[in-house]
From TrEMBL:
InterPro entries: ArsR-like_HTH (IPR011991), Carb_Metab_HTH_regulators (IPR050313), DeoR-like_C (IPR014036), DeoR_HTH (IPR001034), Glycerol_resp_trans_regulator (IPR053563), NagB/RpiA_transferase-like (IPR037171), Tscrpt_reg_HTH_DeoR_CS (IPR018356), WH-like_DNA-bd_sf (IPR036388). It comes from Halogranum salarium B-1. The keyword Transferase does not apply. SMART domains: DeoRC, HTH_DEOR. GO terms for molecular function: DNA binding; DNA-binding transcription factor activity. It comes from the Archaea. This is DeoR family transcriptional regulator. Residues 4-59 form the HTH deoR-type domain.
Length: 259
């Protein structure tokens, strides 16, 4: 008979092999109930052996590895939606707003007021349907398409941002290190984020709290470079001193509302 530890080891191996699986897929593989799988995943997440997604699990993040966009899109989806609902409160009439490419910024784009009063700019073709619902002005930076993140990067994108000024920029991150460094998985994307921060009057990082403690390949700034960070849960105590000069909005996600 398989022990719980053997079953959990099998879950870790399956998730790693397939790059991620749903609860139902894992239950079928292991011939156990979905509730058993969910309990096992809770244990594995606590031990940092897998990462939970909306409906399943993916392998833990490594510095040089980028998870497929579609899997990142569904991961922590309800939490990202809660972050987005709070984030759009920062947009005022007449603002010129930059949207960074990313799965959390995509949720912010979906919640953006469609009264036509704002000018929005993005380096993500994927965000265009969300940002062009009404008569507002939407501008795409241009550049080279990077399939891993569905983002435009390179000299053309950099020149566009370098010659622009934004009232507000929504930026996503892949990792927030203990010293407050913000990081991205690729040099080209890190450069775009860095320029967007530099050319915005007010910069807002939108991220799930799981990014705290993660490290990605390329740093593009630090918490002290931004004006506001919005996240779903309470930020770990060891990071709180980093927010002396940066506004923090946390715990915007109510897990009881999603039971």
């Amino acid at each position: 008979m398989t022990t719980p530890e053997q079953r959990r080891r099998s879950i870790t191996e399956l998730v790693t092999k397939h790059g991620g699986l749903s609860v139902e897929e894992l239950a079928t593989h292991l011939e156990v109930s979905a509730s058993t799988v969910r309990r096992d995943l809770t244990d594995l997440v606590d031990r940092n052996l897998v990462e939970r997604t909306h409906g399943g699990a993916v392998p833990v993040t490594n510095v040089g590895v980028e998870r497929p966009f579609n899997r990142r899109f569904v991961q922590h989806l309800e939490r990202k939606q809660a972050i987005a609902e709070r984030a759009v409160q920062e947009i005022s009439e007449g603002h010129v707003v930059y949207f960074d490419a990313g799965t959390t910024t995509m949720q912010v784009a979906k919640e953006t007021p469609d009264d036509g009063s704002t000018i929005v700019v993005t380096n993500s073709p994927l965000l265009l349907p969300q940002l062009s619902r009404e008569d507002g002005t939407v501008k795409l930076t241009g550049g080279e398409y990077r399939n891993e993140t569905k983002a435009l990067v390179g000299p053309t994108t950099e020149d566009y941002i370098r010659n622009s000024t934004f009232d507000l920029a929504f930026i996503g991150v892949n990792g927030i290190e203990p010293d407050g460094s913000l990081s991205a998985p690729n040099e080209s994307e890190a450069k775009i984020k860095e320029l967007a921060v530099d050319h915005s009057t007010r910069t807002i990082v939108v991220t799930v709290v799981q990014k705290f403690g993660e490290q990605s390949f390329r740093r593009f700034g630090s918490i002290e470079d931004i004006d506001l960070l919005i996240t779903d849960e309470r930020v770990p105590d060891e990071y709180r001193d980093l927010f002396e000069d940066t506004e923090l909005v946390e715990s915007v996600f109510d897990p009881h509302a999603h039971d």
